[in-house]
User: Fold this.
Amino acid sequence: MKKVRARYLNDISVFIISLIILFPSITFSSGWESEFEAICSKLTMADSMSIEEIQSLIDRSDKLLKVIEASDNPGKKIFIRRLKKCRAFFEFSIEVKKEKSR
Assistant:
């Protein structure tokens, strides 16, 4: 029983170490992914946000775009495109809010 358990723990340890070696971006992410989610997750709330809050999200998008472009993430083109679409929607939301206030 102890040998089986030791073998099982050894196998799990090898598996975890293999994942860390093969996929370092999963375990040690650069942090911009969470910022990306924080920005783009606000799309549905843009109607209830003030123009200043939306402008803040646009500014954060611009800063994040530079970080993503400099990263070595193989999927960065997808994130760049999605971030630009989020930013464009925020700009559109500001335009709509300004039109409504006239």
